[in-house]
Amino acid sequence: MKSKTKRNYKPKDRADAEKKLLKAAQEVFSEHGYEGATTRMIAEKAEINLGLITRYFGNKKGLLIAAIESMMIEWGAKKLPFPAQNNLIDESQKYAEYCFNTYAESASLFKIFVIQALTDPDFIKDQHPEQFYYTQEAIERFAKHLNKNLKDERHYVETYLSIIDHIVAGIFLNTYLHQSNSRKKCFELLKEAITHLH
Fold it and tell me: Between residues 88 and 71, which one has the greater pLDDT?
């Protein structure tokens, strides 16, 4: 009697299969890097038929893009782990530290994202930025601090959050990953940059 192999199991529910593949992709890419990871490794990790990767994502790059988008959407769905602050600078600092810690939790995947963005001109074009949402909680908090009406000025709030994100990403990549400075040092630089921003 032949044994059943889990990796050849094809779930009827496409959403379930995609979820398993995306989770496995995040883990395999983080562990082996983009060049070292293979679609076969990811399919085996997910216990999903290899052919479904081609069907759902096209190729390895498509799967990486989907995995990063999925991760960002998950970030956007989380509740902020700190209470609302009394002023814009303090709120910005807490939010920046939260973003930094979130990047640090997925540092390997974040590095892959940056490397691919720098080396593959089509990588950013192939993404779907409309799927990347800031949490509604963050938008509402900053709208209040910025005295903006979300109905008409949401874009202004999102632009401000984007500026904070770029500050965080720069310090995370250069000071934390490249120069191997401590998280405490990075937070000091974040505070300095945010203070100068205002």
Answer: 88
